[in-house]
């Protein structure tokens, strides 16, 4: 691995941290900055196209009907664990990152982010994310257990 690849990996980790840290704080515009304008996100059968639609779709999971943060979510923490990044060229990479999510009930859900990244200007951004869910607590505060991947 050369110095440029090490720097690119660190830049990709930064993008992952922007997504999780901003999402946990409800800073959805900041969360959106981790995605390219033309990005695609998949969760179960839902496919969201474009940064604006991705942010709106993720907001639905953490906001109540009135648009305010879900009052039951007194805290939300995404914990990223094992992460692997493979480069497809100087400006493209694929990544697989395990995630588990804590809410006031404890472990709320877990799974993996399957990502494609591209260098866009001076940032590495998510251009495609598949959120693969392995487990959802029956009393999840964020997700409906029917979203589990087969």
Can you walk through the features of this model?
The chain starts with a helix and ends in a 14-residue tail after the last strand. It has helices spanning about 5-25, 30, 50-60; strands at about 35-45, 45-50, 75-90, 90-105, 105-120, 125-135. The radius of gyration is 15 Å and the shape is globular. The chain has a single domain (about 5-145), classed as Nuclear Transport Factor 2, Chain: A. It has about 150 residues and is of the alpha+beta class.
Low-confidence parts: none
- The CATH architecture designation is Roll
Query: What percent strand?
Result: 35-45%
Q: What's the number of domains? A: 1
Rg calc: 15 Å
What sequence of helices (H) and strands (E) makes up the elements? HHEEHEEEE
Strands, total number: 6
Count of helical regions: 3
Tell me the CATH topology: Nuclear Transport Factor 2, Chain: A
Topology:
Elements: H1 3-25, H2 28-32, E1 35-43, E2 46-49, H3 51-62, E3 77-89, E4 92-103, E5 106-120, E6 123-136
Parallel strand pairs: 1-6
Antiparallel strand pairs: 1-2, 3-4, 4-5, 5-6
């Amino acid at each position: 691995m050369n110095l440029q690849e090490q720097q690119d990996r660190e830049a990709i980790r930064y993008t992952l941290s922007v997504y999780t840290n901003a999402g946990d704080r409800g800073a959805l515009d900041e969360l959106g900055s981790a995605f390219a304008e033309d990005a695609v996100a998949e969760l179960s059968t839902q496919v969201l196209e474009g940064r604006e639609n991705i942010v709106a779709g993720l907001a639905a999971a953490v906001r109540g009907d009135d648009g305010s943060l879900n009052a039951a979510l007194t805290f939300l923490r995404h914990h990223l664990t094992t992460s692997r990044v493979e480069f497809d060229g100087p400006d493209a990479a694929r990544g697989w990152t395990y995630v588990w999510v804590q809410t006031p009930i404890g472990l709320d859900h877990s799974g993996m982010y399957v990502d494609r990244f591209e260098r866009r200007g001076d940032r590495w951004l998510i251009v495609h994310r598949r959120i693969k869910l392995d487990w959802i607590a029956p009393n999840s505060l964020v997700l409906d257990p029917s979203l589990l991947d087969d």
